[in-house]
């Protein structure tokens, strides 16, 4: 049975996800992309995976740099998610106006995120129109705050939507 791409997207949209921005840095240029295809893989060694669309401008930069950070966005960072998901000049020229710092690998850690994992790419695999990048966690951190969630093609904010 053939699966319709639109129906597949609709069904998968019913799985609520956290919102992340995957970042890297190459030759001083910060690059970021909004990603919801992210998960932990292993505790020993600590591994995570991200799936990046092959046609994305960030794809080749991530593979060439060999490092990435996954930034878990807070509900206050919806604007960053939208910017890093689009193709605006602001995204490519100004890193969406985001401030950042670095940890172990040099990949940008977004200021104000509620958590991050800073990774070195250890493997990559073809995955249809995406590349699956497996990263070994080199550093991580967390802070207080409410997460930004995505469900049925919309952002959701915990506690605000529960009322």
Notes on the protein architecture:
The longest helix has 9 residues. It is built from four helices and twelve strands, in the order αβββββαβααββββββ. The relative contact order is 0.22. It has a single domain, classed as Pnp Oxidase, Chain A, CATH 2.30.110.10. The model has no long low-confidence stretch (mean pLDDT 93). The radius of gyration is 15 Å and the shape is globular. It is α+β, with helices and mostly antiparallel strands. Strands 3-2-6-9-10-5-4 form a seven-stranded antiparallel sheet.
Which sheet architecture does the biggest sheet show? 7 strands, antiparallel
- What's the CATH topology name? Pnp Oxidase, Chain A
Shape: globular
Order of helices and strands: HEEEEEHEHHEEEEEE
Q: For the CA atoms, what is the radius of gyration?
A: 15 Å
Please describe the topology of this protein.
Blueprint: H1 5-12, E1 17-18, E2 20-26, E3 29-35, E4 38-42, E5 47-53, H2 57-65, E6 67-72, H3 78-85, H4 89-94, E7 100-102, E8 108-110, E9 115-127, E10 130-142, E11 149-151, E12 154-156
Antiparallel strand pairs: 1-11, 2-3, 2-6, 4-5, 5-10, 6-9, 7-8, 9-10, 11-12
Kindly list the characteristics that best describe this protein.
single chain; 163 residues; alpha+beta; Pnp Oxidase, Chain A; seven-stranded antiparallel beta sheet; three-stranded antiparallel beta sheet; 4 helices; 12 strands; globular
Task: Provide a brief overview of the structure.
The protein has helices at residues 5-12, 57-65, 78-85, 89-94; strands at residues 17-18, 20-26, 29-35, 38-42, 47-53, 67-72, 100-102, 108-110, 115-127, 130-142, 149-151, 154-156. The chain has four helices and twelve strands; from the N terminus they run αβββββαβααββββββ. The chain has one domain (17-156): Electron Transport, Fmn-binding Protein, Chain A (Pnp Oxidase, Chain A, Roll).
């Amino acid at each position: 049975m053939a699966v319709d791409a639109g129906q597949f997207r609709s069904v998968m949209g019913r799985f609520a996800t956290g919102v992340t921005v995957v970042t890297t840095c190459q030759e001083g240029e910060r690059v970021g992309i909004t990603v919801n295809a992210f998960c932990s893989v292993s505790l020993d060694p600590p591994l995570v995976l991200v799936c990046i669309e092959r046609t994305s401008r960030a794809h080749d930069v991530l593979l060439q740099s060999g490092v990435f950070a996954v930034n878990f966005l807070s509900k206050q960072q919806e604007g960053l998610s939208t910017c890093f998901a689009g193709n605006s000049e602001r995204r490519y020229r100004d890193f969406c106006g985001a401030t950042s710092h670095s940890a172990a690998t040099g990949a940008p850690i977004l200021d104000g995120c509620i958590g991050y994992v800073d990774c070195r790419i250890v493997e990559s695999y073809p995955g249809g129109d995406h590349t699956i990048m497996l990263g070994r966690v080199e550093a991580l951190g967390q802070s207080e705050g409410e997460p930004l969630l995505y469900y049925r093609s919309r952002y959701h904010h915990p506690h605000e939507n529960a009322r």
